[in-house]
Amino acid sequence: MSYEIIGITVLWTFLYGYVIVASIDFGAGFFSYYASVTGKGNVVKKVINRYLSPVWEVTNVFLIFFYIGLVGFFPEVSFYYGTALLVPGSIAVILLAIRGSYYAFHHYGSKARSWYQLLYGATGLLIPASLSTVFTISEGGYIEVAGPDVSLNYSALFTSSYSWAVILLAIVSVLYISACFLTFYAHKAGDQEAYAVLRKYALSWSAPTILASILVFWAMSSHNSVHFEKMLDLSWMFVLSFLFFLGAVYLIWKKKRPGISFILVMLQFAFAFYGYGAAHLPYLLYPYLTIYGSFTNDTMAITLIIAFLAGFFLLVPSLYLLMRLFLFNNDYVQGRK
Amino acid sequence: MFEYDPVLYSRILTGLTLAVHTIFSTLGVGVPLLIALAEWIGIKRNDDHYHLLAKRWARGYIITVAVGVVTGTAIALQLSLLWPKFMQVAGQTISLPLFLETFAFFFEAIFLGIYLYTWDRFKNKMYHLLLLIPAALGATASGFFITTVNSFMNAPLGFTYENGVLSNINPFAAMFNPATPTKVSHVLSSAYLTAAFVLAAISAVALLRGRNHVYHKKALHLSMTVAFVFAVTTALVGDLSGKYLANYQPEKLAAAEWHFETVEEASLILGGILEEDGEIKYALEIPYALSILAHGTPDAEVTGLEEFPEENWPPLVVHYMFDTMVGIGMALALISFLYLFFYKKKKWNPYNKPLLMMIAAGGPLAMIAIEAGWFFAEEGRQPWIIRGVMKTAEGATTSQNVDLMLYLFAALYLILIVSAAAVLIRTFKGNPAEKELEKTGLDRRDGDEL
């Protein structure tokens, strides 16, 4: 395997990790707010906070990791995306900043404030929408390159059916992934009331998720036919993804094996996400940047891969410890510790 | 305000983000050490006052960490959004420390999360303390790695750059450049010093308000001892940094000291005003001191600004930032020394009002010194973004709308700082240490010796 492929695979894996953990977090913010508006606040809030409190900081790192790795392995990316994404990038950063700090203010400050919760819930949906523009732009057609000048064509971006389809998919998937995880967590906590509420959320967001995915496929076929053709070549991955989806929804519906059902959700997104990514290669930004044209020098690539392996051996046991203490510890989950 | 110029606005926005981030990241590096010390002493002496101290410090710390994390995310992404061409070069040469910094941060985030939620989960309190060690190490390591990136910008090494093409890259040479040792040790020791002074100031204010509980005295003593140790370290490293500058970045030192002509037996200038014609008025001159600072002997020759083309001069206003940093640093060393001296002399009262007031002022002053030091370091590197390789203007974005982003971020930071301060004040005012001590029954240990 070439360094380029190793590099992009590592990064894609971190991005996948971010998609999962951030979705749980973003969706939880929304559900927590929605539940308190509809009078079920206290039922689900306890479950949500028990999970989120020790991990909110870690979520953010996945994104930074992906970004720093991307800049390190593919420095050319900085030039194109950095110049073009000033406004959407800054807005995403501002939303992330509001969300992160108000989470802490809300939970560690002396008194909880309801408008902190509103900020937290609203940003949970706006952030995936703003971050997903990066995926949209990567398909090409929204960036204009004239010599040293790179600019984003906002009217093309905002009038394109593809970009709206991606935003829609991002938001509904966040809600779906989050509801599925929280259903599992509530079940583990033995909190029947919260389980019933969250299970309803999970089931009601499942159909929109699949519909939005189909919409994205359809919109891509007209926007970037090269990428669409390549995705058809990998259609087995998307078929598998759909089967995992059916399995997950079936288990949640039948109230069976909530742990397995969340693993199926993760597999559903893993196959769709890696299938999408593999078909996107070799382009990082269609048609200007490929992973080969933008790769860093060999010395740095080897050093980064070694650093990554070393860091990996440090991180995996630490993450395992975190999960043992807070996610897979029945006493903690059930509120006895 | 100004005519639209993406370079100028990018510089202001970067400066603003870093100025805000520095407040929180300095505490982020320094405070875990003090929390760990408090908990360790608590275990060793079986003194619950120290446990409460660690707990209360951690409770405030987490609020500052949150703002530190989000402003850190902002600066990380702004590097690419505002300086895309700089990051193209940086990505080729120094992505290793950037990458490692994220690992360190990851490590810290995991263990800090565990630490904060396991106060009563382990029978042996030592296990809980052990969790703080990786968190503190992670905080220090991320400070270390990110400072090597900044060092590289001051003393670029480990590559050749010709006609816009980079070659012969050596990531380790880039990371361990000549600026790295002094910069890293100065950043770390001043962060410990500042965190200690900020925490000491909190205790001093409590004592000044007549809250005489031994808890506050223990807190004050611990933080002032740490402050003194790192005040001395910071001063020593500061002296080494002066010698580094004289050898590798003489134009920065010369600009800081308004030292125009290359002469021997150079004197150090404190304060003053620079007139249009290059005359310095109202300044205090210390003979030979600059030669000693630069090369360690009173008769050494110190390079003046005249040796450099004027377009490569740093802005001369850095003189005031340098003076502020050094002046406050000296004052902090003196205050912490006085406290310890009074404390050792059995008959003298270390809690006398003037001394407590000085300690209380020391907290904010230390933060001002950190800001002044960073502004000196960064402005003193102008007009280069990578000294001798790339001018700041060449690295900036060409994008429109940087002005709009500046206003948005300025509003964001204002809101964040005001909210964080309000939350911190509310958290501690409503629940003072005395009340918590009473509630937990710790008050009976009141008569303990220090």
Write the layout of secondary structure elements.
The complex is a heterodimer of chains A (337) and B (450).
Chain A: H1 3-37, H2 41-52, H3 56-73, H4 76-84, H5 86-108, H6 114-138, E1 143-146, E2 149-152, H7 154-158, H8 161-189, H9 192-223, H10 225-233, H11 235-253, H12 258-280, E3 283-285, E4 289-290, H13 298-326, H14 330-333
Antiparallel strand pairs in A: 1-2, 3-4
Helix pairs in contact in A: 1-2, 1-3, 1-6, 1-8, 1-13, 2-8, 5-6, 6-8, 8-9, 8-12, 9-10, 9-11, 10-12, 11-12
Chain B: H1 6-45, H2 48-82, H3 84-93, H4 95-116, H5 125-154, E1 160-162, E2 165-167, H6 171-175, H7 180-208, H8 214-248, H9 250-256, E3 263-264, E4 268-270, E5 273-274, E6 280-281, E7 284-286, H10 289-295, E8 301-302, H11 318-344, H12 353-379, E9 384-386, E10 390-391, H13 392-395, H14 402-429, H15 433-439
Antiparallel strand pairs in B: 1-2, 3-8, 4-7, 5-6, 9-10
Helix pairs in contact in B: 1-2, 1-5, 1-7, 1-12, 1-14, 2-3, 2-14, 4-5, 5-7, 7-8, 7-12, 8-9, 8-11, 11-12
Pfam families (chain A): Cyt_bd_oxida_II
Family (chain A): Belongs to the cytochrome ubiquinol oxidase subunit 2 family.
Main location (chain A): membrane
What does this molecule look like?
The complex is a heterodimer of chains A (337) and B (450). With 337 residues, chain A is mainly alpha-helical. Chain A has one domain. Helices cover 81% and strands 4% of the residues of chain A. Chain A has a two-stranded antiparallel sheet with strand order 1-2. In chain A, helix 1 crosses helix 8, helix 8 packs antiparallel against helix 12 and helix 9 packs antiparallel against helix 11. The mean pLDDT of chain A is 80. Chain B has 450 residues and is mainly alpha-helical. Chain B has one domain. In chain B, helix 1 packs parallel to helix 14 and helix 2 packs antiparallel against helix 14. The longest helix of chain B is centred in the N-terminal third of the chain and has 40 residues. Chain B is globular and about 70 Å long. The C terminus of chain B is likely disordered. Chain B: GO terms for molecular function: electron transfer activity; heme binding; metal ion binding; oxidoreductase activity, acting on diphenols and related substances as donors, oxygen as acceptor. Chain B: Keywords: Cell membrane, Electron transport, Heme, Iron, Membrane, Metal-binding, Transmembrane, Transmembrane helix, Transport. Chain B: It comes from Metabacillus mangrovi. Chain B: Belongs to the cytochrome ubiquinol oxidase subunit 1 family. Chain B: This is Cytochrome ubiquinol oxidase subunit I.
